[in-house]
Amino acid sequence: MEKKMKNVFLQGAISPDFIAESIAKHQSKTQIGAHDIFLGQVRADEIEGKLVSAIEYTSYESMANAKFHEIRENTFSKFNITCMHIYHSLGKVNVGEICLFVFVSSPHRRVAFEALEYVVEEIKKEVPVFGKELFHDDSYTWKVNT
Q: Which range, of 23-37, 80-94, 104-118, averages the lowest pLDDT?
């Protein structure tokens, strides 16, 4: 049974409270033995002598959500995971704040580790999300994923 497509996008930074609540909601799922979490944080990179102060994220939301859904379905078919959640920021996220939250749960830790790495690498490679790196002087450059 294929699950319906979810909107993974949240406006602005992903708060520590949101992350904590997501973890707490899984305490009743007693078949889970391991959670693995990836948190993408905005870095204060120096580019051509200027420090990044924030990233403004944009996306072709319907296309990106379809790609996130495809990655999700592929992950469930490749790994014995119990559940998975992906959240990505849209709009401005300041340096030090969280912009990507991936949460994978499984009965055993090794699977959670491997599935999480797969998901994060696929997101970076496949999903059309664009970051405009903003500098303190109001100039910007488009971020290139590596």
A: 23-37
E strand intervals along 27-128: 34-41, 46-47, 50-59, 83-94, 98-106
Spatial CA neighbour of 145 closest among 65, 127, 116, 136 = 127
The DSSP 8-state label assigned to residue 14 in this structure reads B
pLDDT in tens, 108-132: 999 999 999 999 999 999 999 999 9
Give the helix ranges, DSSP H, for 50-108.
Answer: 61-78
* Selection from 1, 43, 37 nearest residue 19 by Cα: 37
Q: What digits encode the pLDDT tens for the residues 45-69?
A: 999 999 999 999 999 999 999 999 9
In 3-state terms, what secondary structure has residue 71? helix
Structural domains in the chain, CATH included, are: 9-22+31-142 (3.90.1170.40)
Q: Strand 34-41 vs strand 98-106: parallel, antiparallel, or unpaired? A: antiparallel
Q: Are 46 and 81 in contact (CB under 8 A)?
A: no
Return the DSSP state at 52.
E
